[in-house]
Automatic annotation (TrEMBL):
Family annotation (InterPro entries): NnrU_dom (IPR009915)
Membrane topology: Multi-pass membrane protein
Membrane-crossing segments per the record: 40-59, 71-90, 102-120, 127-144, 164-186
GO CC terms, sorted: membrane
The protein, known as: NnrU family protein
Domain spans labelled NnrU: 3-190
Primary location: membrane
Species the sequence originates in: Paraburkholderia lacunae
Keywords: Membrane, Transmembrane, Transmembrane helix
Cell location: Membrane
Length: 192
């Protein structure tokens, strides 16, 4: 569990710099340049992600059951994760309604993904992993919306065609992951 927690601290710590030290972050970008900042950020994030995956794999080898998920948890979790997958591309496709209405759809996607996995898993390692991501997503979304409010950020008008691109790409990615990759990567087939 130590490796998992270390990975979470690194990964979510890097992704929290803007939440807790936005002025320092801006000063570092000004000092070393945006490309170098993104490089350091990416390396630290990658190290954290590798530690999370490794640590979670180790923890799953010796699971500690905290609670048994109810039978309705998986059927509820599956559409929540599908929506989460739709919200991920919504952050990158310009002029879609998700971005216009939510401002930060990727963070909400992470929130839904984490919540859905907490519903469907009752082990201590799952609670640590998905609980950490859920807490981070809540705090990050509040901070991002506050930044938007203070900066007077508005999002451009949305286009239904862009919504279609977001929904189709998100659902294709979700289907690939749910039916093929999740079982191959994690040994769990959420679709049976």
């Amino acid at each position: 569990m130590t490796i998992l927690i270390l990975g979470l601290l690194i990964f979510l710590g890097v992704h929290s710099v803007r939440i807790v030290a936005d002025d320092w972050r801006s000063a570092q970008i000004a000092r070393i340049g945006e490309k170098r900042w993104k490089g350091i950020y990416s390396i630290a994030s990658g190290i954290g992600l590798v530690l999370i995956i490794w640590g979670y794999g180790l923890a799953r080898a010796h699971p500690v059951s905290v609670w048994i998920p109810p039978t309705w948890a998986r059927p509820v979790a599956m559409p929540l994760v599908a929506i989460a997958f739709i919200l991920l591309p919504a952050a990158h496709v310009p002029n879609n309604h998700f971005k216009t209405l939510l401002g930060h759809p990727m963070v909400l996607g992470v929130l839904l993904w984490a919540f859905a996995h907490l519903l469907a898993n009752g082990t201590l390692s799952a609670i640590v992993l998905f609980g950490a991501f859920l807490l981070w997503a809540i705090v990050d979304f509040i901070a991002a919306r506050r930044r938007d409010l203070l900066a007077g950020t508005t999002y451009p008008p949305a286009n239904v065609a862009r919504d279609g691109m977001v929904i189709v790409s998100g659902l294709i990615a979700w289907a690939l992951f749910a039916f093929l990759l999740h079982g191959w990567l994690f040994g769990v087939r959420p679709m049976g």
